[in-house]
Amino acid sequence: MASPVPPLAHCESPPPLVLTAEEMAQLEEMKLSGGLPPPRPAQPIPEEMTKGWWRISQPEQLQELIDALNPRGIREKELKHALMAHLEHSAEAGISPCHGSLEFTPSEEEEVVLRADSPLPWAESVALRVDMAVLEQVEVMEDKVANASMQVKVRCLPSMED
User: pTM for this one?
Assistant: First the structure.
């Protein structure tokens, strides 16, 4: 007699990873050594990389960046479209696409000091309103739990007006 339940679909799993002898040796070595290699000691950042490393000053650098962007990446695709539009507008205006400088160099009189943000002023009335809103949300949640029959039916919750 035929079963009324259709047979389960056969799920094909991928075949096991085939490693070469050299890869197997490397895998065994990593297992014995405890996995990843030890971290290298920290090194200082080179001076030429601390400022202006992001600046594109040559049209060739801009074209290299555009060519390197992945068209499947959402943000990279948007960046590519924006850079291409910039190139088109620069060509229409007859200027170099890498004109101008965005580098910030403070004068010697200016002292660039980063200060911690000051905490926002605390207002007791605002804190009271927030507390009351949270309390109201908790009470609404209690009502939902009670109405969903998740509580024991023998006990009734007092009404909120009491």
Answer: 0.35
